[in-house]
Specification:
Blueprint lengths: L4 H10 L2 E5 L5 E2 L14 E5 L3 E10 L12 E8 L4 E7 L11 E11 L6 E9 L2
Parallel strand pairs: 6-8
Antiparallel strand pairs: 1-2, 1-3, 4-5, 4-7, 5-6, 7-8
The protein binds zinc ion (ZN).
The site of zinc ion (ZN) has 8 residues, from loops.
Length: 130
Amino acid sequence: MSVPKTWRGEKYRYRLEAVKCTGCGKTYMPARAVCPECGSRDFEDIKLPAEGKIVTYSMVHVGPAQMQFEVPYAVAIIELENGLRLTTQIVDTQNKELKIGQKVRMVFRKIQEDGKTGVIGYGYKAMLAE
Ligand SMILES: [Zn+2]
């Protein structure tokens, strides 16, 4: 598969997708050019389930400068329905108690804003499902 690098970058940044190595079957998100497990360069696209559960989490009370307005916030390891794990922020947790095993849904949110350049970064965050 030969697609321009920039195009691939956009695709994986803005969609909840990952790639699966055709050599060893490992899943990567974001996508990799070469599989660190088996060295294969052949990957197939897979669409990730939007639902998962909290494996573990921690509350951040002192965050990096651009996140300061959001503290305290929760950062969690989420296990998606297909077993893939990812680390992400859980949004809208005010007055809600987090529990291990709680169901979450992946949502597309603003990650950070660069005050100098006005560049806004977007990505996936998790939201409590109920
Ligand atoms: Zn592999």
